[in-house]
């Protein structure tokens, strides 16, 4: 239950399991990394039902990953197993990730990463885009106009899909899962997202 650091939530040196139990009048509470617990849920009743070897990737504010091998979570020796969002996918990146490193997958494949890619594309010369009319560009907005055939959105989605797809293919070489399950807020884009990523 102890969390040394959780950058996206701003947690440091805390035990959410104990704190939640105290708020619930001592009711026993079990906690785990959200992506790991999501992976268990997907194996039990979701997209990985019937599989004992799967990878759950959560695409939200950050990029999380839960790895199940032979029906068991792979937490690693220090609980950091599956921190897929912080593998380096661009060694030339100059802007730091929330974790302090540079070029992490999370900087490109999370909701905030997609919005960042969009802002970079919109700052360059480009064809007229529906995204130009939106004040604060979000991952949802990118996929909404992507469905409408917007050329700039296609370029943004293509860049995101290439980075995530290549990272997943590398992970497949290491883990050989039966299935990848994509979840999190970005996954609500549905089939267009899956089709774009699967290509790589």
Question: Would you write up a description of this structure?
Answer:
The chain is an alpha+beta fold. Helix content is 40%, strand content 14%. It contains seven helices and six strands. It has helices spanning 16-23, 34-45, 106-109, 111-123, 139-147, 151-175, 191-198; strands spanning 3-6, 11-14, 54-59, 63-69, 72-73, 179-183. The strands form two sheets. It has a four-stranded mixed β-sheet, covered by helices on one side. It has a two-stranded antiparallel sheet with strand order 1-2. β4 (63-69) and β5 (72-73) form a beta hairpin.
Q: Strand percentage, roughly?
A: 5-15%
Estimate the helix proportion, in percent.
Answer: 25-40%
The residue-averaged pLDDT reads 94
What profile does the largest beta sheet have?
4 strands, mixed
Helix/strand/pairing category: alpha+beta
Count of helices?
7
Distance between the termini: 37 Å
From the structure above, extract its key features:
single chain, 200 residues, alpha+beta, 4-stranded mixed β-sheet, two-stranded antiparallel sheet, globular
What's this model, at a glance?
The protein has 200 residues and is an alpha+beta fold. It is 40% helix and 14% strand. It has helices spanning 16-23, 34-45, 106-109, 111-123, 139-147, 151-175, 191-198; strands at residues 3-6, 11-14, 54-59, 63-69, 72-73, 179-183.
Set out the fold topology:
Elements: E1 3-6, E2 11-14, H1 16-23, H2 34-45, E3 54-59, E4 63-69, E5 72-73, H3 106-109, H4 111-123, H5 139-147, H6 151-175, E6 179-183, H7 191-198
Parallel strand pairs: 3-6
Antiparallel strand pairs: 1-2, 3-4, 4-5
Helix pairs in contact: 4-6, 5-6, 6-7
């Amino acid at each position: 239950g102890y969390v040394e650091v959780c950058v996206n939530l701003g947690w440091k040196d805390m035990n959410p399991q104990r704190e939640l139990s105290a708020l619930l009048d001592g009711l026993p509470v079990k906690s785990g990394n959200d992506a790991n617990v999501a992976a268990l849920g997907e194996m039990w009743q979701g997209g990985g039902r019937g599989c004992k070897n799967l990878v759950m990737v959560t695409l939200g504010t950050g990029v999380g990953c839960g790895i199940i091998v032979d029906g068991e979570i792979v937490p690693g020796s220090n609980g950091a197993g599956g921190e897929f969002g912080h593998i380096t996918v661009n060694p030339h990146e100059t802007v730091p990730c929330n974790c302090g490193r540079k070029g992490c997958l999370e900087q490109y494949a999370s909701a905030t990463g997609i919005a960042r890619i969009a802002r970079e594309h919109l700052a360059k010369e480009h064809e007229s885009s529906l995204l130009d009319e939106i004040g604060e560009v979000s991952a949802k907005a990118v996929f909404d106009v992507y469905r409408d055939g917007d050329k700039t959105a296609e370029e943004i989605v293509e860049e995101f899909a290439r980075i995530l797809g290549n990272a997943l293919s590398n992970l497949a070489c290491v883990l050989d899962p039966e299935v990848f399950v994509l979840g999190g807020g970005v996954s609500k884009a549905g089939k267009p997202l899956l089709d774009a990523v699967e290509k790589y």
